[in-house]
Structure formats: structure tokens, C-alpha cells
Amino acid sequence: MPQFRFNNNIFMIISLTFTSLLGFPIISPALPAARDALSISTENIGWIMAAYSLPGLLFMPLSGLLSDRYGKRRILFPSLFLFGLAGGACSMAPDQETLFFLRFIQGIGASALSTLNVAMVGDLFKGPDRMRVMGFVGATQNIGSGLLPLLGGVLAAVAWFYPFGVAMLAIPLGLYMNFALEEVKRENPPEKTGTRAFLGHALSQLNNRIVIELVFMTGGFIFIGFGAFVSYIPLFLKDTFDSPAVLIGLIIASRSTMGVLTASQLSWLTRHFSYRTLIFSSFFATSVGMAWVPFADNVWMIIFTAMCYGGAYGILRPSLQVILLEHAPEDLRTTFVSALNFGLRVAQTTSPVFAGLYLIIGTYNGLYITAAVLAGLMAIYSLTAVSLRPMV
Fold first, then answer.
1. pLDDT tens string 332-372
2. Distance spanning both ends of the chain, measured CA to CA
């Protein structure tokens, strides 16, 4: 394996990773403005996020299977085009029903994006280089999660719909990758077996405890962080401290500081600490950060919560992805990654809805105490997970 260096393949992986973020972090600071402009109730505002995640429940596993069966390029270009086109159309939505529908269509296009970028890392890199590149992917996710809320907050301060239009950047990227992706074709393509045999092979490989545990831990972390932090911290800041959109974007963006630090050092961390230690610490830090929210008496105290969540995200997400790639058969890497992301999409779809339903009968403080308890339970679970044992 040659020494890692930035090249066209890395550019495509990083660009695809960054583009996949244009559906969530940049939108989060715009939620209060969209709520006011389109008269969306507080308990329904989470559907802007949930409608985007919902199609992934079907199309994410399907896109993974199709990519492994027929090739990544055939799936990637139409996915990027649909993602960008529907995202741009969201900026012209006249009411909440239209916005929810267009976000659903955009979510169909998004289903393959965060799966293919990780699968490409598995195809192109092995051993320590794989972890190093995955660390850069994690750092990109955190940089995007930091910069995009700032941009979204600035754009939302001008008009609620501007953050949605940024997704149109996916269209030129799709045109570029439609030609350039030839360089990342798998060296050992899968055998040309029948569709039924291929599906049977995929299901038999996926049906094991390690995959189920990794999906559960990914979904559990996202359920807690996405519902309590990404979807409802903006509304908490607005309703509790009357924070403007730009400040909301700044607070959300602060999570990337710790996230970039932990993700960029992931290769070093995995050499000195076990996966079990890292995953347990990530859940524990998330629990502490969520428990902090009810005690915040000013907006700046939420930065501590943001950094706890961001630092945990920078470790947990890429670590679980690398563990999955290490167990995935070569001809099913995209399918395995799509299974992991399926758990993520389930969490992203349901957590804003459950958080919104909770707030009908409960308070913001109760929501964050509940999130802290759930994160603590996940930390305890990680101590017994078979998937976090060292590979022999």
C-alpha cells in the first residue's frame, strides 16, 4: 500500500462526504425561521428533518445492494442530481406540506451518498491507511457540521429558504464524478450470479450479531444526538434565550471544534485505546453533555454540550464504520455500510418526531435529562458488545 496522499480519489470521497451534509447541518439553524415563515407548529417542525430521513429506510438498503450488484457510478450520478434538484426546489416551497414532500424527494437522492463515500474508503484503502482516511472523512463531517450551521444561520437571517438552495452544489459534483469515478472501480468485482442468489448471499452475511450490534450502537447514538441536539437545540436556544439565527448557527457549529480534533487523531487514538474504551467514552461524554443543558443559565453554556456531542461523534461514527468494513466481505462493502446507515436513518427519522411528541407533554429540561439517561444506558451496553472485542 503506497503512502497516503491527497489525490483525485480522496477528493471525490471528501467532496461526496461534504455534499451529504447539505441536507442537515446547514438546515438546522433555519428551523425557527422556517417555522415562523410557513406557520409550522413546534411539535411538527421536526418533520423537516424526519421527512428527509424517512426514504432512507427503503432506499438506503436498496442503493447499497444495487451499488454492489451493478456498480457505484450507476447509482451515484442520479442520486446527486435528485438530491440537488429537490433541495433547490425546497427553497421555493409555499407551505409546510410542499416543503415536507420535497424534503422526502431530496431524501431519496441522499440515501446513497453517505453510504458510497464510506464504501469507497473500504475499496481503496486497507489497514492503518483505511483508519487514517476514515479519520479524514470524520474530520470532514465535523468541519462541515461546524461551517455549515454558521453558513445556514447567516443565510437564514436573510431568508428562511436560502439554506435549502445550497444543495444544488451536488449537481456539478455529480457531473464530475460521473466521469471520474472510473478510477475507483473494485479490483475484484462480484461474480455475475442471479439476483436471487445475490440477495440470499447478502442476507446471510448481514444476519450476524456483530452487524446487528454495530447498527444498534450507531442508531442509538444518532437517536440521542439528532433528536435532542441537532433538531431541538435551535428551538431551545430560540425559545429559552431568544437567540438570533446567526448565534444559533454559531452554537451548533462549536461542536465541530472537538469533533475535528478527535476525528483527525482517530488513527493515534485507536493505537493507544481499544474500540470498547473509545465507544464507551463517546456515549459517556454525550450523556454528560445532555445532562448539562438543564443547568445552562445563558446561551454560551450550551457550547459545552455541543463539544461533548461533537467530540463523541468524531470518534464513534468512523470507529464503528471501520469495524464494519473490517468484517464486510469485499463484494458486499456498500451493502454492509448501507445496513449501518439504515440504523442511522431510522434514528434520524424517528428521533425528531419522538422529541416533538415528548415536548407536547414535557419540557426541554425533561427532554435533555431523558437523552442523558439513554446515552448512559448505551455506554453500559457498549461494555458487553461482542463487536468491540479485538479482532484475532
1. 888 888 888 888 878 877 888 898 889 888 899 999 999 99
2. 22
Counts for the chain of helices (H) and strands (E), in that order: 20, 0
Domain boundaries of the chain, sorted by first residue: 8-180+192-385
Distances (CA, A) of 191 to 40, 50, 62, 195: 50, 37, 19, 11
The highest-confidence range among 156-160, 278-282, 298-302, by mean pLDDT, is 278-282
Question: Collapsing DSSP states into helix, strand and coil, what is residue 44?
Answer: coil
pLDDT band at 4 (very low <50, low <70, confident <90, very high): very low
Predicted TM-score (pTM) of the model is 0.76
Residue 98 backbone dihedrals phi, psi, to 5 degrees: -65, -40
CB 265 within 8 A of CB 336: no
- 296/165 Cα distance (integer angstroms): 34
Contact 137, 318 (CB under 8 A): yes
The CATH homologous superfamily of the domain defined by 8-180+192-385: MFS general substrate transporter like domains (1.20.1250.20)
- Which among 383, 356, 359 has a CA at the least distance from the CA of 282? 383
* Cα–Cα distance for residue pair 179/354, rounded to 1 Å: 42
Cell numbers found for residue 284:
459517556
The three three-digit cell numbers of residue 91, written as one number: 427553497
What is the residue-wise DSSP string for 312-334?
Answer: HHHHHHHHHHHHHHHHS-GGGHH
